[in-house]
Amino acid sequence: MTGKSDGRPDRLAMEFCGLQLSTPIVLLSGCVGFGEEYTRVAGFSNRDAGAIVLKGTTREPRLGNPPHRIFETPMGMLNAIGLQNPGMDVVVDDILPALDFAETRFIANVCGSTIADYAAVTRRFDDSPIDAIEVNISCPNIKQGGVAFGNVPEMSARVVEACRKATSKPIITKLSPNQADIGENARRCIEAGSDALAVINTVMGMAIDAETREPVIGNVQGGLSGPAIKPIALLKVHQVYAVAGPLGIPIIGQGGIVTASDALEFIIAGASTVGVGTALFYDPLVCQKINAGIAEYLERHSITLEQLVGSMTHGPDIEDSAAAG
Hints:
Layout: E1 14-16, E2 19-21, E3 25-27, E4 51-57, E5 70-73, E6 76-79, H1 88-95, E7 105-110, H2 115-126, E8 132-136, H3 146-151, H4 153-166, E9 171-175, H5 182-191, E10 196-199, E11 203-205, E12 208-209, E13 214-215, E14 222-225, H6 230-244, E15 251-254, H7 260-269, E16 273-276, H8 279-282, H9 286-301, H10 305-308, H11 318-324
Parallel strand pairs: 3-4, 3-16, 4-7, 7-8, 8-9, 9-10, 10-15, 15-16
Antiparallel strand pairs: 1-2, 5-6, 6-14, 11-14, 12-13
Helix pairs in contact: 2-4, 4-5, 5-6, 6-7, 7-9
C-alpha cells in the first residue's frame, strides 16, 4: 500500500461535493474553534482531517449563553455555548486569511435567527476563500431561530433555498435528530438545493444539580454529544441515506465517533464522510488513530471507501421490524 508524503495512505483520499479530501474525517463545528485551537497541541495537525467545519458564525457578534455552558455526562457531554462568535465580518476579514488552505478544506458554519440572516451570512462567505458552507438549521441551544427551522421541513427548505440563491459554493445542511421525520426533512432540503447533509446535530438534553435542585446548564437545555448518542445517529444516517443515497447526495455521519470501528459503522450505514467532535476533547490525536484503522480495514477487506458507503446487509425494513415489536 502506497502512502502520501505526510504518511496518510492513498486509499483514504476521496471526493466530497466536488472537493478533494485527503481523508474521510471532518472535524465538527464548535469543537475546533476557527481551525486554530488544536494546532497548539503537540502532534496535532489539521492535515489529519479531510475538512474542518469552523465555529458557527452569525451576521452580528454574539456573546453566547450564560454559564454553565458545558457539563460532562455519562458517555457524553452537554453543551449550550449559544453560538458565541465575533460575527461574519471578523471571521471573513481577520480569521480566514490566517488559515492555511493547503493543509485541509475549510467549511463555514452559518447560523441565524431569520431566513434573511442565513442568506446574509452565506452571501458573505460566498465572497471568501472558504471551500463549502454548512447551513446550521438545527442548533439546540439557542432560544430562537435555528432549532425551530431545523424541526419543520418546510422551514428547513426555505432556509436552504435562500442560502442556495446566495452562493455557488457547495451547501451542506446540518439536520436535527429532534424531529418527527428526518427523512422527509432531508428530501425537502435536497429539493431546495442542498449538495450534502450532515447527520446528526446534538440531541436535546439537560442535567439537574440534586442539591440545589437547579439546572446545571445556564440555558437549562443543551445539546448532548458523544458516544451516548451514537446509536441514535447511526439510525438517522441510515434513514437519511434511504432518501439521499439514490440521488447521489453525500452524508457526513456524526454523533459519538471515537474509534475507527465507529467511523466504519457510519460509512457502512451510508455516510461518505465521518464527523469527529467530542472525542477530540479527551484525545486530540484521535484522528490519526481513526485514519489508520479505516485504512487497515479497507486493505484487509480489499474494498474502497466508495464501495463501503451504504454497504450494510439489510434485514427487515425498519417499519416491519417496528410492527413486529
